[in-house]
Amino acid sequence: MAFKLGVQTYQWLAYADRFGSSFTWKQVCYEAGQAAWVGVELTGGWFEELPPPDEVMAFCESVGVRIVAFTGGIATDEDFESSRRKVEYLREIGGTALMVGPPGSSGVAPQNRAKTLDDFIERAKRFNEVCEGTGVAPGLHNHLWTICESEEEIRHFLDAKAMGWCPDFGHAAAAGADSMALLREYGGTIVHGHLKDALVDESGRWMRFCELGRGNVGLDWAVILHALDEEKYGGWLVVEQDQTTVTPMYDMSMNREYLASLGYEARIRG
Hints:
The protein is of the alpha/beta class. The protein has 11 helices and 10 strands.
């Protein structure tokens, strides 16, 4: 089975925050469809706005998209319960994965970082058990500014086999990790994925995220996508840019064109 290519929606949320505007979940899904994407990972902030699953599915069908994943967290009991509800909702609408973000590193003393990660691993094991039998796979989303950002921390989490992996190649590369080495070693654990490019300064410090193919962190997307095919990964990979160069819809149209230029047009159509 071949992987499918979709779009992540955080960029719309960041754009709205930057300019003091707002988007509804319907607007976001509509614009994703207008940019010719089919699969949508809906950022968690919109979850509480969603009507019953049958209404969401009807609207999404009318604009030519489907929601395939949500974002979530499990760091607190409240987050854990919210993510459990998201998994149940995804099961109803035919979604496939929940992207699970680790706790942020702000306020975590360096000497407590490893223990905080180990505590998160135990919570991840519990949540993975909750998801069994639902058809929705939870996956770790490695991320800058969290207790799971470096290659060593990513490896530590994945070696614990707490849950699957939702790799974010842009975050990994910006943190100095060898994305291809991780992919070769842990490709079989991937349940969902984020395609993201990044710009760093001369000292290697993160500057911003950007359109695919325009970064300078050494991500060769043709090689990465080929490697995922060799791993026989058959789930969704979604483009997540986080920051906007022009507008979310325009930028995601550019990302779509870039992936199509690599020969993946059919994957974008799902």
